[in-house]
Amino acid sequence: METGEGDRKSSGGILIPATAQVGKRLTWAVVVAIGPNVRSMQLDDRVLFSPEDRYEVEVGATDYIILRERDIHAVAAERLDDSPTGLYL
Q1: How many separate domains does the chain show?
Q2: Is residue 3 situated within a structural domain?
């Protein structure tokens, strides 16, 4: 079978067309500040978010990412160790 330019094959032999959208990879970050109405996280928690849902700001020559609480996919923290998953989802 001939493949078009940009097409690729998976390790299992599945043909992936060049027009197929690549999955989005989520990113972890550490919370360094929170707004007054945030309910699900605390300082030093690790949060999982999509890099597309972020805003960047520079404060004192340091770059920070600003996220809305609704754009957080998961929170990982030691205080959650008693929960079945260890995460707020």
Answers
A1: 1
A2: no
